[in-house]
From TrEMBL:
It catalyses: Hydrolysis of terminal, non-reducing beta-D-glucosyl residues with release of beta-D-glucose. Keywords: Carbohydrate metabolism, Cellulose degradation, Glycosidase, Hydrolase, Polysaccharide degradation. This is Beta-glucosidase. It is an enzyme of class 3 (hydrolase). GO terms for biological process: cellulose catabolic process. The keyword Hydrolase applies. One of its GO terms (cellular component) is cytosol. Its EC number is 3.2.1.21. InterPro entries: GH, GH_1_N_CS, Glyco_hydro_1, Glyco_hydro_1_AS, Glyco_hydro_1_beta-glucosidase. Substrate binds at residues 36, 137, 181, 310, 430, 437-438. SUPFAM superfamilies: (Trans)glycosidases. Pfam families: Glyco_hydro_1. It comes from Actinomadura verrucosospora. The active site is at residues 182, 383.
């Protein structure tokens, strides 16, 4: 392990002045997900998930990569927690592996699986870091997929049972809970376009999956709330600013459609207790008719809302042209159910190594919109970061100036949003560690800390030292 040389820089004669300070108590974190970092895929009673099955299916993941070992966080978490402490993180967002806790997706808990998360939480607390678990980051137990997966209503009830088991085990150690992460991806990349696990091509089923993910969220909150009065509950949604390519009515309508499917399809049920009427009309041919009683369950009072933001969508709706998606390296079928004709176009901005345009103004737009159009709830950026494939110097140092610039710009957008009255209370960068990046395998690196996948050596990048400085000063240095 290579430790950070300095976890904080004080304002003094030798350091740049802090130009933008964040509110006292602002939470600074980093995030990971179980399948992307844990490894130990068949240890201590863990069962297979849909991502195990998907990754082991030829042609599904770039390079044939799998999460069998990933970055071995399961065995190396003490080292990783020490790195978090050196960074000065106040919070660590991780996900619970459902098949590690409940291999069959039902029934009693797997004791060794829960013990791992107890040990992880204890190590974090000892280091002065708040654990922020996410209960579902896409690793559905394979037996539940075999029974129909998220398009089946019963999966939502199985999720609530699982949430209760985890809450009973670590609810005394955890205050902040995220139920589901990015239900758009789980539903539409998983069940409509097939880019993600389980790789199904079922547009009608994907709408049911989206609904049942939200229903599972509501049922889980109901199951957990009240056991520990200081616990706080929410979900994490991936939101985008959406712009029409031109003022042409077809492009304007395309922007409405994609905003509806990406943003409002989840924000409206969670925060308003209803689905957008225009989205229901766009998807009507798939027979999606959600039950009003379900919406009452989904619309649980939220203590927090996580927002994951990476880029802006610019779209065109020119009739007669084939859909162009940017959802994955092997995308053929559109995840945009009911709006398959919409094209995603480049607007000429610089891009990250993922090919995603960099637009920090879109983050400010998203934050102010949520604060303006929905009931007040504390907001957290639960994911934001940039993927590149950096090459280390001969001494192993990674000079990732592009990542620093990306995070800096987006933090400045966060600061502007707070100044505009947005109740933003924390920021989690994606990701703490380089890891298995879903359908891109190990080809893209998002981490503040470089991982040599052959040796598992951890090396903080320049961005890690920069972020430690930001945390230490609770703000950003002046731009010179």
């Amino acid at each position: 392990m290579t430790s950070l040389e300095s976890s904080a820089v004080q304002d003094d004669a030798g350091a740049p002045e802090t130009a933008l300070r964040f509110p006292t108590g602002f939470r600074w974190g980093a995030a990971t997900a179980a399948y992307q970092v844990e490894g130990a895929a068949a240890e201590d009673g863990r069962g297979p998930s849909i991502w195990d099955t998907f990754a082991h299916t030829p042609g599904k993941v770039l390079g044939g990569d799998t999460g069998d070992v990933a970055v071995d966080h399961y065995h190396r978490f003490p080292e990783d927690v020490a790195l978090m402490r050196d960074l000065g993180l106040t919070s660590y967002r991780f996900s619970i592996s459902w098949p590690r806790v409940q291999p069959a997706g039902a029934g009693t808990a797997n004791g060794p699986g829960l013990d791992f998360y107890r040990r992880l939480c204890d190590a974090l607390l000892e280091a002065g870091i708040e654990p922020w678990p996410t209960l579902y980051h896409w690793d559905l137990p394979q037996p539940l997929e075999d029974a129909g997966g998220w398009p089946e209503r019963d999966t939502a009830y199985r999720f609530a049972d699982y949430a209760e088991l985890v809450h009973e085990a670590i609810g005394d150690r955890v205050k902040h809970w995220t139920t589901v992460n990015e239900p758009w991806c789980a539903a539409f990349l998983g069940y409509a376009s097939g880019d993600h696990a389980p790789g199904r091509l079922d547009p009608s089923g994907s709408l049911l999956a989206a609904h049942h993910l939200m229903l599972g969220h509501g049922l889980a909150v109901q199951a957990m709330r009240g056991r520990h009065p200081d616990n706080r509950f929410g979900a994490a949604v991936n939101l985008y600013a959406v712009s029409p390519a031109t003022g042409d009515p077809a492009d304007v309508d395309a922007a409405r459609r994609i905003d509806g499917m990406q943003n409002r399809l989840f924000l409206d049920p969670l925060l308003l207790g209803r689905y957008p009427e225009d989205v229901l009309a766009d998807t009507a041919r798939h027979g999606f008719e959600p039950d009003a009683a379900d919406l009452a369950v989904i619309n649980q009072p939220l203590d927090q809302l996580g927002i994951n933001y990476y880029t802006r969508h610019t779209v065109a709706g020119t009739p007669g042209e084939a859909a162009q998606t940017a959802s994955g390296p092997f995308a053929v079928h559109s995840p945009w159910v009911g709006s398959e004709h919409v094209r995603f176009v480049e607007a000429g901005r610089p891009v990250t190594g993922m090919g995603w345009e960099i637009d920090e103004g879109g983050l400010h737009e998203v934050l102010t919109r949520v604060a303006r159009e929905y009931p007040a709830v504390p907001l957290y950026i639960t994911e934001n970061g940039a993927g590149y494939d950096e090459t280390p110097d001969e001494d192993g140092t990674v000079h990732d100036a592009e990542r620093i610039a990306y995070i800096d710009a987006h933090l400045r957008a966060c600061h502007d949003a707070i100044a505009d009255g947005v109740p933003l209370a924390g920021y989690f960068t994606w990701s703490l560690l380089d890891n298995f990046e879903w359908a891109w395998g190990y080809s893209k690196r998002f981490g503040l800390i470089r991982v040599d996948y052959a040796t598992q050596l951890r090396t903080p990048k320049d961005s890690a030292r920069w972020y430690a400085d930001v945390i230490g000063r609770n703000g950003l240095p002046g731009q010179g």
